[in-house]
Design goal:
Strand 1, helix 3 and strand 2 form a beta-alpha-beta unit. Helices cover 68% and strands 9% of the residues. It has 383 residues and is of the alpha/beta class. It folds into 2 domains: 129 residues, abc type-2 transporter like domain (abc type-2 transporter like fold); 193 residues, no CATH class. The chain starts with a helix and ends in a 6-residue tail after the last helix.
């Protein structure tokens, strides 16, 4: 019993010394919970407000302007685009410029006076949080606005028409059509982002372990003794992992489409090409981690932090529009941020490169920079 306690004491002492000596791990032990606390406190919000809204007002009268003012004053909608036709509204939603499209018909004021005012609300069904918030907010605002109009009629002496409105239909009704996801199924929204998350975990973790594993196994010294250049070493590690990742993504995508019945409306070849760009970006980031980390444990910890940030800050689940600016900037440094928009645009909306070229170009630049940094920090020497 005494010897058992002595061994236990020695092991506890050894583990304590190792933790205190490993300062990077010690910092992560304290920093990671703090990062999670601040991210959940400031970045995560399921109540969506200030939805970017595009307006096509065919009436341009006092009543339509008053209705738009009511929407803006509610805090749920921000009018960011004034458009000229319904097709422009659809294109703006396709491009991700707005989440809500509002179409006001001609002679809106006359329709309201007759108690038959109607407004068309177009919602981006690829984002379930925006759909639910936009639908509920618009319905509530329209009902409240209609009730106020009815009260105004009573006060102005139009008792009979006002009583008719109170007992029947309100003077304004909102017609809602959910685009891309008419049944508002969460899986249609979640699956594309989940594919992006899984792929990032695979490619970053795989490439992050590449150099560190060889360093710990003692084979890195043999590799560094060869005439191979750092850029050649990076490329040699990139290609096999990229092929495995492409196969992995093909299987995941097939399961999502054929097993879970998530519709795929876009161009499969375009998604394949942009997926390769995303995989290269992720592997480049993993190689940077691999070159910086001294041990596999440190590499795993760094990739764990990266995956946490990816889940919270890339738009995978939580909308980036509600996040503070500093969290959006952090999210911009993660390649998954751009690929989430790409894969949702292709799978759910069926859009092409015309609407995705900015995210595609950003991924290309990201891949070049990440691979360049990986080659630079993978020095031909042992640390």
């Amino acid at each position: 019993m005494l010897k058992s306690l002595q061994r236990l004491r020695a092991l506890i002492y050894k583990e304590t010394v190792q933790i205190l000596r490993d300062r990077r791990t010690l910092i992560l032990f304290f920093a990671l919970p703090l990062i999670e606390l601040f991210l959940f406190a400031y970045a995560v919000s399921l109540t969506i407000t200030h939805l970017p809204t595009g307006v096509f007002d065919q009436s341009q009268d006092a009543r339509s302007r008053d209705f738009l003012k009511t929407l803006v004053n509610s805090g749920s909608f921000d009018i960011t685009l004034v458009l000229q036709n319904e097709q422009q509204v659809m294109d703006a939603i396709d491009a991700g410029q707005i989440k809500v499209g509002l179409v006001i018909p001609p002679n809106f004021e006359m329709q309201v006076l007759r108690g038959k005012g109607s407004v068309l609300l177009l919602l981006d069904g690829s984002d379930s949080f925006s759909v639910q918030s936009g639908y509920n907010a618009a319905l509530s605002i329209a009902q409240r606005y209609s009730l106020n109009l009815t009260i105004e009629k009573l006060q102005s002496g139009g008792a009979s028409s006002a009583l008719t409105s109170l007992s029947g239909q309100l003077p304004i009704t909102t017609t809602t059509r959910v685009l891309y996801n008419p049944d508002i199924q969460d899986l249609v929204f979640i699956l594309p982002g989940l594919i992006a998350l899984i792929m990032q975990i695979i490619v970053v973790t795989h490439s992050a372990m590449a150099i560190v594993r060889e360093r710990e196994a003692g084979t890195l010294e043999q590799l560094l003794a060869t005439p191979a250049r750092p850029a050649e070493m990076v490329i040699a590690k990139l290609i096999p992992g990229m092929l495995v990742a492409i196969l992995d993504m093909s299987v995941i995508l097939a399961i999502g489409v054929f097993w879970f019945k998530v519709p795929f409306t876009g161009n499969i070849l375009l998604l394949g090409g942009l997926s390769i760009l995303f995989i290269i970006s992720g592997m480049g980031l993993g190689l940077v981690i691999s070159a910086v980390a001294k041990t596999q444990r440190q590499a795993q910890q760094l990739t764990s932090v990266l995956q946490l940030l990816a889940m919270l800050l890339t738009g995978f689940i939580y909308p980036r529009a509600t996040m503070p600016l500093w969290t959006q900037i952090i999210g911009d440094l993660i390649p998954m941020t751009y690929f989430v928009r790409i894969i949702r645009g292709i799978m759910t909306k069926g859009v092409g490169l015309t609407f995705l070229w900015t995210d595609s170009l950003t991924l290309f630049v990201y891949a070049c920079i990440a691979l360049g940094i990986a080659a630079a920090v993978s020095k031909k020497r042992l640390d």
